[in-house]
Design a protein that fits this description.
CATH superfamily of the largest domain in chain B: Aldolase class I
Shape of chain A: globular
CATH class of chain A: Alpha Beta
Helix content of chain A: 25-40%
Number of domains of chain A: 1
Order of helices and strands of chain A: EEEHEHEHEHEEEEHEH
Strand content of chain A: 25-35%
CATH class of the largest domain in chain B: Alpha Beta
Number of domains of chain B: 3
CATH architecture of the largest domain in chain B: Alpha-Beta Barrel
Oligomer: heterodimer
Number of strands of chain B: 27
Number of helices of chain B: 23
Strand order of the largest sheet of chain A: 9-8-7-10-6-1-4-5-11
Radius of gyration of chain B: 27 Å
Radius of gyration of chain A: 21 Å
Strand order of the largest sheet of chain B: 3-4-5-8-9-10-11-12
Chain lengths: 248, 678
């Protein structure tokens, strides 16, 4: 079985996000970029399935600027077998991403597509679901455990009330949640090996997909700062203040 | 006036201490001829400049000729020390700090083949495991002589301008009297607690008579030896009360534990991976039981814990001693509300372990500590802003980037991995070494403030670097594991890195051949042993893991011995061949005459790194200095002026393991020493 894993290049989770002066988006100049953490979890899960003998190839794909090649090299250094870069400088919305991924899935015929549940930059949480709809395949979202059976998979999902286990038919789309695994460390020797692994370059047009935006960003603003608190002298005063504030 | 508990002054008898943080006594082994000369003074004064309230110099300054230092301590039995002490105390007082010194007689905790080859004395014949000397059982005339030596030494210290002296009473002679485990004397100094403590109190009496009231006297003592039959907590509290009630001393400096073995010492002064502030609550109990000024230090590396120690009333003065080796300016940064800029102590304990092994204490990631005469703690701005390009974001590259940033240069760093850290990030994969990553995190935070640019996930090629049009290019690319050490079968072995990084799963019956003797070998062995595999660690050396050093070895041993690891010294892995699904190792010995076969299913080789230097050699012919460094200019602190190629467009340097396999401190020192003059 082949596993396809899309990975997105996003602002590193450690970076303090700054909004551009004109409010059109966040500052990306001279900011550390990394693989979306949920996608790292997806790559890790695919590699573990391969190591367990459940899969024989892990293909990673990224849609984004030329620099997204770095993100793919990281996935290759972790252990993915080959990579596909769909190069575009546009901001690609989830629907267009899903359409491109469908094109890739049609060509590659993976038995399983593991997608991060969301990217930490736009927090859309749409791509996996849209992709499953376009492919007409089963989907299991927010996975915290994946067990591959014969032509099917048992997936434990993180839902509001706790955990839900479902069985889905393969091929399927699974989106990953935080507790699925802890991604591995990409060692220097593997980073060197990754330089020589195959990386295919395509464009959105190769899949007949237009990346023209359908959404319009009106404004981007930083959260308001924390307002100064009030010091109270006694428990009574605290309770009274909390009541006034409507908390109690 | 700040309301920070740490910044409140404290009145100790007649002495006003300006805040609540002290550097407790410790011996960095910087004396020259047993005297605190320029280097010692510069080190001590730097901490006073940084704002510390009280700095205690000299762990275990020797009061007697039959207490010869085992590494390099101050010889306070010599009159000639007084002017040296005077210069140091004047300089410290000038900076507004108080200064004291710790005096001791080591008793059995030394060797008879040091100094004047006098016999070692103790109140019993029991040998101390760490220093190995079989002591002479102390006699009446020894006791009289040593009491007088203490008083003479205290008088010298007062004449030298010290604010007070502290006596060492854990593991040294005074404690050897106090503890029933090491005191087998009859008569006035042996037997009951009162008798055993008589020596300690006689010493204090003699000192007090000599120095008068306007001089601080304190004791750093164990109030719980944590040894069967030794001083337990109940007796410890009684000792504390008797010390207080003697009326001879002004404060208690609490220790818990014993130091006669490496593991004992490491529990008293815990290292990275061990719990923080493990004895702070105990010190608080002593303070509560005695209601007497109480000091304490033991792995309190961060300001928050120190603040808690004071705010919660655990202690009156909190010791941050190793933390001050990493950053001598902790107090200044607290006062300037720049706590985030404090360089964090990572508990690597390079300072302490290196005293024994290397003869002087250095901080693993502050190369200026102990080198104050030549290396700056504060980097000054350069006159000319240059473009500096650095390849590699390991400890060497990041220190170079930080220092170049402080100099005001335009700095860009290229890194192949998606995260900074290099081998430090690798070593931090082990739970017990996780604190090491602060070496990287602190530098990244500093670099961000300084506007250093980073290009991660970028395998820099010579062309990329050249296109940057830099004035200075620094190659800090580190190395790759070197495993080609066998006459046959090199392709059958894996490296320690393969195991630590998780790239290769552990086998079930594994040989770790480790002749590098550093952390990576033991980390790999521990990783494998924890998976349930049988592990044999083999080295051709006389002892294993020599570069890990005594205290750092303790947690590994506690883990590996339980996992039934075998330690084999003086044998060398010569070759490996595959037989079926097994690996057959041919094992010989440097002593000769041995050749035997052993069967494993995995063989790990730990033999350091080999430099990753292709880019350096590609760039070398295009540089103005052709890679050459003037060692004279480097060591004298002058800018590099080597020109061997008029066509060259940039200066090219190589630092850290990209030159040869060394360690984190060497990498950081390489960077600081070079870049401070760029």
């Amino acid at each position: 079985m082949k596993i396809l894993v899309p990975v997105k290049r996003v602002v590193d989770y450690n970076v303090k996000i700054r909004v551009k002066a004109d409010g059109t988006g966040v500052e990306l100049a001279n900011v550390k970029m990394s693989m979306n953490p949920f996608d790292e979890i997806s790559v890790e899960e695919a590699l573990r399935l391969k190591e367990a003998g459940k899969a024989d190839e892990v293909v990673v794909v990224s849609i984004g600027p030329a620099k997204a090649e770095e993100t793919l090299r990281t996935a290759l250094a972790m252990g993915a077998d080959r990579a596909i870069l769909v190069e575009t400088d546009d901001i690609v919305e989830p629907l267009a991403v899903a359409k491109i991924l469908k094109g890739i899935a049609d060509a590659e015929q993976p038995g399983l597509i593991i997608v991060g549940k969301q990217a930490i930059d736009d927090d859309s949480n749409q791509t996996g679901q849209m992709l499953a709809a376009l492919l007409g395949s089963a989907q299991a979202t927010f996975a915290s455990k994946i067990e591959i059976g014969d032509g099917s998979a048992k997936v434990t999902r993180e839902v509001d009330g706790g955990l839900q286990t479902i069985e889905i038919k393969l091929p399927a789309v699974v989106t990953t949640d935080l507790r699925l695994n802890e991604p591995r460390y990409a060692s220097l020797p593997n980073i060197m090996k990754a330089k020589k692994k195959p990386l295919d370059k395509k464009g959105p047009a190769d899949f007949g997909v237009s990346t023209a935006p359908r959404l319009k960003v009106l404004k981007t603003e930083e959260p308001g700062g924390r307002k100064a608190g009030v010091k109270v002298k006694s428990v009574e005063e605290l309770v009274a203040s909390l009541k006034t504030a409507g908390v109690l | 006036m700040s309301n920070d508990p740490l910044l409140q002054p404290y009145k100790l008898k007649h002495l006003t201490l300006r805040n609540r943080i002290i550097v407790t006594s410790h011996e960095p082994a910087y004396p020259e001829d047993g005297m605190p000369k320029e280097r010692y003074r510069a080190y001590t004064v730097e901490r006073a400049k940084g704002g510390v309230a009280l700095t205690m110099t000299a762990g275990s300054a020797a009061v007697s000729k039959d207490s010869p230092p085992v590494f390099n301590n101050l010889l306070v039995y010599k009159d000639e020390i007084v002017p040296w002490i005077r210069q140091m105390t004047d300089a410290v007082h000038e900076e507004g700090a108080a200064i004291m010194i710790q005096l001791t007689h080591l008793g059995r905790r030394t060797r008879w083949d040091k100094g004047d080859w006098l016999p070692v004395v103790a109140p019993s014949h029991h040998r101390e495991a760490s220093h190995r000397a079989f002591p002479k059982k102390i006699e009446d005339w020894d006791i009289e002589r040593i009491i007088k030596d203490f008083a003479d030494a205290a008088e010298r210290m007062k004449a030298g301008g010290m604010d007070g002296v502290e006596l060492e009473a854990y593991g040294h002679l005074i404690d050897q009297f106090n503890s029933p485990l090491t005191n087998e004397l009859d008569g006035p100094y042996g037997g009951s607690l009162e008798n055993r403590m008589r020596f300690c109190l006689d010493v204090f009496k003699a000192i007090r008579e000599r120095v008068g009231d306007d001089f601080i006297l304190g004791v750093r003592y164990t109030a719980d030896e944590r040894l069967p039959g030794g001083t337990d907590k109940e007796v410890g509290v009684e000792i504390s009360k008797r010390l207080r009630d003697s009326g001879l001393i002004d404060y208690l400096n609490v220790i818990r534990g014993h130091i006669d073995t490496d593991p004992g010492l490491t529990d008293v002064i815990p290292i990275q991976g061990m719990a923080n502030s493990p004895h702070l609550d105990f010190a608080g109990e002593i303070r509560a039981a005695t209601n007497f000024p109480t000091f304490h230090a033991a792995k309190i590396p961060d300001v928050a814990t120190a603040r808690h120690a004071i705010a919660a009333g655990k202690v009156d003065m909190v010791g941050m001693t190793r933390a001050h080796m990493t950053d001598p300016h902790i107090i200044r940064k607290i006062m300037e509300k720049r706590e985030d800029d404090i360089r964090p102590c990572v508990g690597a304990n390079y300072c302490l372990d290196r005293i024994y092994q290397g003869g002087a204490a250095y901080c693993i990631h502050n190369a200026a500590t102990g080198r104050e005469l030549t290396m700056p703690h504060r980097i000054s701005k350069a006159d000319v802003r240059k473009k500096v390009v650095i390849v590699g974001a390991g400890p060497a590259g990041l220190e170079a980037a930080r220092v170049a940033g402080e100099r005001g240069h335009d700095v860009t760093v290229f890194e192949a991995a998606s995260n900074p850290g290099g081998q430090v990030r690798l070593t931090a994969q082990s739970e017990r070494r996780r604190e090491m990553i602060s070496i990287i995190d602190w530098r990244m935070a500093q670099c961000e403030k300084l506007g250093v640019k980073f290009e991660f996930n970028t395998w820099a090629e010579a062309e990329t670097i050249e296109a940057e049009n830099a004035d200075v290019v620094i190659i800090a690319t580190g190395g790759l594991p070197h495993t080609d050490v066998l006459s046959r079968g090199n392709e059958l072995v894996v490296s320690s890195w393969d195991i630590i990084s998780g790239d290769v799963k552990p086998g079930t019956n594994v040989l770790v051949f480790d002749d590098a003797g550093d952390h990576a070998g033991l980390q790999a062995a521990e990783f494998i042993a924890k998976s349930g595999a049988k592990v044999e660690i083999m080295t051709p050396d006389r002892s294993f893991a020599p570069e890990v050093m005594a205290m750092n070895l303790v947690p590994y041993m506690r883990s590996l011995q339980k996992l039934d690891t075998t330690f084999t010294v003086t044998y060398r892995l010569e070759s490996v061949e595959k037989r079926g699904n097994q690996l057959v190792a041919t094992v010989g010995s440097d002593y000769g005459g041995v050749s035997k076969e052993q069967v494993f299913d995995q063989i790990v080789v730990n033999h350091g790194t080999i430099p990753l230097d292709e880019i350096y050699f590609e760039l070398k012919p295009r540089s103005s200095n052709l890679g050459a460094v003037s060692y004279d200019q480097l060591l004298e602190g002058h800018p590099q002026a080597v020109n061997r190629n008029n066509e060259g467009k940039f200066q090219l340097y190589r630092i850290g393991d990209a030159v040869s396999a060394r360690n984190t401190h060497a990498a950081i020192y390489d960077a600081l020493r070079l870049v401070k003059d760029i």
